[in-house]
Amino acid sequence: MRARAHRSLLTAITAASAMVLPVVSVVPASAAAGPDPQAFRQSVKAPAVKRHVERFQQIADANGGTRAAGTPGHEASATYVADKLRDAGYKVTLQEFEFPFFREVTRTVLDRVSPGAKTYVRNTDFRTMTYSGSGKATGTVQGVDLVLPPSPEPSSTSGCEASDFAGFIPGNIALIQRGTCNFHLKAELAQAAGASGVIIFNEGQPGEGADDRRILLTGTLGTPTTNIPVVSTTFAVGDELAAAGTTVTLTADTESDPHRKTRNVLAESRRGDPDKVVMLGSHLDSVVEGPGINDNGSGSAGILETALKAGALPTRNRLRFAFWGAEELGLLGSAHYVAGLSAEERAKIKLYLNFDMIASPNHVFGIYDGDDSDATGAPAGPAGSDEIEQFFESYFTTIGKPYTGTDFTGRSDYGPFIGVGIPAGGLFTGAEGIKTADEAAKFGGEAGVAYDKCYHQACDTLANIDDEALEVNTGAIATAAFVYAHSRTLPEAAAPGPTRPGTGGGGLGHDHDHSGVPR
């Protein structure tokens, strides 16, 4: 990323080299002789953050191993967070909303019958797409407008038009390639053509990390309107199933409830200018399959402890913390919140900072690329996002830690905010994407292995947390909250507009495919 001056936000960054994690002083130009960010950062202690993470694990253990939105585990998590914030003096709002709940009742099974029996491995070879229907489909696999071998650049339009299904034999299982249109459309067109099941496989172009379109695809159909089973696979599995005469059995037993309720937890400080809101957020829910301790107990714990220590600060600007519900089903909590804001309320939010998965075991230190200075994937964020990116770059440079850019794709809860022109930024340590050799040389860890091998699985437990990453990133969160809370000059937001979805794949593999956009 190119270097720039920090202009008005930062005037000095100093570090004490004797500490394992150097003490950082990031001083707003307006407060060089006033508030002390070093003292505040030191007050947000790693053991306290870890205790919140441990509590989320205990809650999951007591509630069937999950903290998914619409389940008792999420309700207990929300109650824990809300009680802590009230005790710290915040004005707490529990914002209820309705959402379409989804879970696998039993594990989905994908077996090849011929040529040669083969059982594919769930979460290695294939995954159930969110909002898949139920049923047992046995039949011939029929490819739909496939591009095999794949083109050098992503270009497949497989299953994007009704005409792609001309000649499709009802009762067959549709094999569709990732590309161009969203997964919901592909599945709905297949269902309309009489398919008994759908297999959507990755497109096949090689790449590094999140740009590798051969890895296991993760996705959602967006809404529970598809009645047949739908799974996603790696390119290799899809390529194998495309062989003439292949037959498979695909069995799924799922539950969708379009009227389940859950809550966002919103906490606002009682000090600072209410017309200048500095907002930090993390999603509080897990997937149904596991406790979600890295994804996203880590980010929730980091901003919770920051909030508890910031509650009594006499800040210049108002602090607002959000713990989102139903992120894992499509950024639903944050989208509900942003959609409910008036133009006047949106204008008061001067920036939004997002922290989703900040302690991955095979981590990198990812900073959202606010100005698209990496020139890859999604475009730049709204005006002012570049300043946030540079703030975090300077922080990591000062403490002697490497960092890398991660795409602003709209696939975590910053998406609805950038969609209405609010400057945004944040941190991310990687999900199911594969760490490259260059990243392993830069950050340590193991090349050729996922940043988080337990992403969206039952093994995303307390043992999945990297303590160093949690401590480093919490220090960055605390410093950012303090600096922006005291600054006279905040990023200038663009004119508010309608919410738009992200357009890329998940940065560093954080690819929930919330909107179904295939990239």
UniProtKB/TrEMBL annotation:
<feature type="signal peptide">
    <location>
        <begin position="1"/>
        <end position="31"/>
    </location>
</feature>
<comment type="similarity">
    <text>Belongs to the peptidase M28 family. M28A subfamily.</text>
</comment>
<keyword id="KW-0378">Hydrolase</keyword>
<keyword id="KW-0645">Protease</keyword>
<dbReference type="GO" id="GO:0006508">
    <property type="term" value="P:proteolysis"/>
</dbReference>
<dbReference type="InterPro" id="IPR003137">
    <property type="entry name" value="PA_domain"/>
</dbReference>
<dbReference type="Pfam" id="PF04389">
    <property type="entry name" value="Peptidase_M28"/>
</dbReference>
<dbReference type="Pfam" id="PF02225">
    <property type="entry name" value="PA"/>
</dbReference>
<keyword id="KW-0479">Metal-binding</keyword>
<keyword id="KW-0862">Zinc</keyword>
<dbReference type="GO" id="GO:0046872">
    <property type="term" value="F:metal ion binding"/>
</dbReference>
<feature type="domain" description="PA">
    <location>
        <begin position="146"/>
        <end position="241"/>
    </location>
</feature>
<feature type="compositionally biased region" description="Basic and acidic residues">
    <location>
        <begin position="509"/>
        <end position="519"/>
    </location>
</feature>
<feature type="region of interest" description="Disordered">
    <location>
        <begin position="492"/>
        <end position="519"/>
    </location>
</feature>
<dbReference type="InterPro" id="IPR046450">
    <property type="entry name" value="PA_dom_sf"/>
</dbReference>
<feature type="domain" description="Peptidase M28">
    <location>
        <begin position="264"/>
        <end position="478"/>
    </location>
</feature>
<dbReference type="InterPro" id="IPR041756">
    <property type="entry name" value="M28_SGAP-like"/>
</dbReference>
<keyword id="KW-0031">Aminopeptidase</keyword>
<dbReference type="GO" id="GO:0004177">
    <property type="term" value="F:aminopeptidase activity"/>
</dbReference>
<protein>
    <submittedName>
        <fullName>Aminopeptidase</fullName>
    </submittedName>
</protein>
<dbReference type="InterPro" id="IPR045175">
    <property type="entry name" value="M28_fam"/>
</dbReference>
<dbReference type="GO" id="GO:0008235">
    <property type="term" value="F:metalloexopeptidase activity"/>
</dbReference>
<dbReference type="InterPro" id="IPR007484">
    <property type="entry name" value="Peptidase_M28"/>
</dbReference>
<keyword id="KW-0732">Signal</keyword>
